[in-house]
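User: For my dataset I need records formatted as: sequence, then C-alpha cells, nothing else. Please produce one.
Assistant:
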Amino acid sequence: MLDFAGRLWYNSSVIYIGDWPSGKATGSGPVIGGSNPSSPAKRLLGSLQIELQTFYIENVRAPFLFTRLYYSGDPICYHDCMTIVTYPAFLAAFLSVTCLTYLAWREHNPEKPRTLSELAADNQKLVNRFRTVLWVCGTLFAFTMFFYVVPRVTHAHYQLMAWIVYYGCEVLLGIFPARGNVERLLHNVFAYVMGVAMLVTVFLFALEFRGIFTIIESALTITMVILGVLTTLDRKRVIFYELPFIFLSHVSILTAIFALG
C-alpha cells in the first residue's frame, strides 16, 4: 500500500502472460514440455507483464484502474496508456459541439424560443438522436474524468461526487425527454441538477490549479453563472445562453486535462 500525495492509496497485482523457461513457473503461463522444474531458467523467452494498479480515494469506495505494460521486464506503454484516457474527452467535446449546434441551427424558431431539450422532443427521431448524443458524450467525458482527472486533483472526493451526479442526471435526461407533464418536470429537475454539478466541477477546478489555469477556470465559472441566470431570466433567447453554458463546461474539462498533464 502506497501513500500517493497524501490522498490516494493503491493495491497492485501482477498478471503474467506468456511462456516460462522453467517448468517450475510461479506465473500463470504454461509449463514448457521437457523442462526441468528444479532447474533455473537458462534463457528468457519473453513475457508480457500486465500490472494493474487500483487506486482508492480515502473514505470513498471507488477504485480507479491504471495499467502498466511490460515486455521482458521493460516498460513499454505506461505513459501512452495514461495519455489515451484523455482522448475520449476531446472526442466528446467535438461530438457535443457539432451535434448540439446542428440541432439548434436546424430546429430553432426565433418566434417560438425553446430550450435545446424541448427542440429535441418534437419527434421520436430527434429524441433518439439527442439521447444518443447525451449518453455517448457523457460516457466519454465520464471516462476521462473518473480515470484521469479525479485521481489527480486535491478535491477528489467532491469532484467525484459532482461527476457521479452529473453523469447520472445526463443518463436520466435521455430517459425522460422534455415532453408531457411528468416527463417534462423530471427532465427539467435533472437538467437543473446537472447544471449545478457542472458549476461545482468548474469551481473546484478553479480552486485546484495555479497561475493561468486558475484564471481560466475562474473566468469560466463566472461566465457560466451569468449564463445560468440568464437562461432563467431571458426565456426568449434561452438557447443562446444554454449552448455556451454547455460548451464552456467542456472547455473547463479540457483545460483541466492540460493543467494536470
